[in-house]
Amino acid sequence: MPKGGLTRQEDRPIFASKSAMYVQKAPYEAIASIYDFLMRHVDYRRWVGYLKALWTRFDPGRPDICELACGTGNIALELWRRGHRISAASDASEAMLARAREKARRVGAEISFVRADLRDLSPLGKFKVLLCVYDSINYLPEGEFPEALRQAYMHLSPGGLFIFDICTEANSMKYFLDYTEVESGPGFSYERRSRYEPEERVQYTYFKVRLAGDPRIYCETHRQWIYPVEWVVERIGESPFELLGAFSDFTFKGVRGGEANRVHFVLRKEGRWR
Ligand SMILES: C[S@@+](CC[C@H](N)C(=O)[O-])C[C@H]1O[C@@H](n2cnc3c(N)ncnc32)[C@H](O)[C@@H]1O
Q: Are residues 175 and 118 in the same domain?
């Protein structure tokens, strides 16, 4: 998610119109069409380079990979461009998957973009590496995280790796206590407001999107649960996964002192899930 303030106050009035018709949408339903613009600051190449460094540290082979919560396919397609073995990617949002499929079709990438919730990966097969990044896991309430772990476990081959990230409370406190961004792109404008509620440990993000020639304003409410790193480590400890590492901010350094904004976890499938 963006860092720092990009507020353009002069753009605000378009969202304040009393006569506008507001239409509530599910998370990522309306912003799917502008997601790549929203994320244009993200260096997906560097991210993929980091993910590759993470898995090759623990699995030097050429694993078959699946990306969970793949959104519009930016990571999956970059993996494909680099010649990695990625045959499938999944997400819960059909709108995001439609974008991913269209992008794959344009470049001739043979990746199957499958609808699957992190809490039910039954539409997927088994893989040597499962990836799930860009704080997608944070969309699960704490009580649902163990099931996501179990699902990932069931869809890995023996010795397979599950690599996922979370954004931390330090990140929410630094950047999202009260954050507003108003922007325009080709054929649309949007407003994004985020606030973090420390008592609930929930980060709320509200989007309003307006498309050219459409009088409606599409609204989305996103909730992300900001788990403590130690809590995640405990849940992993309750599973048969072996925790190979928890790395802060795109480094290979461990997590110390609550400073990290983002933590990538690398887990290996061991034993059996009881
Ligand atoms: C911040 S986006 C990240 C997308 C992509 N990984 C990327 O790097 O651009 C979060 C994604 O998580 C997906 N998501 C949220 N909750 C989910 C769930 N329970 N199961 C599967 N996907 C989910 C959303 O649909 C969205 O595409």
A: no
Q: Walk along the chain (274 residues) and give the pLDDT tens digit of each residue.
A: 333 333 333 334 455 566 678 999 999 999 999 999 999 999 999 999 999 999 999 987 899 999 999 999 999 999 999 999 999 999 999 999 999 999 999 999 999 999 999 999 999 999 999 999 999 999 999 999 999 999 999 999 999 999 999 999 999 999 999 999 999 999 999 999 999 999 999 999 999 999 998 989 999 999 999 999 999 999 999 999 999 999 999 999 999 877 899 999 999 998 888 7
Q: Which of 40, 79, 136, 250 to mutate to test the pocket of ligand 1 (most atoms within 8 A of CB)?
A: 136
Q: What is the DSSP letter of 180?
A: E
Closest CA to 69 of 31, 117, 26: 117
| Residue range of the domain that includes 252 | 44-167+228-268
Q: How far apart are the C-alpha atoms of 107 and 189, rounded to whole Å?
A: 28
pTM for the structure as a whole: 0.93
Gap from CA of 68 to ligand 1 centroid (Å): 8
Ligand 1: nearest atom to the Cα of 67 = 6
30 lies in some domain: no
Does residue 245 lie within any of the structural domains? yes
Contact 206, 192 (CB under 8 A): yes
Query: Domain count of the chain?
Result: 2
CA of 48 to the centre of ligand 1 (A): 16
Q: Are 155 and 126 in contact (CB under 8 A)?
A: yes
User: Residue 36 falls within a domain, yes or no?
Assistant: no
**Length of the chain, in residues:** 274
**Residue 64 domain-assigned?**
yes
The answer to whether residues 122 and 198 belong to one domain is: no
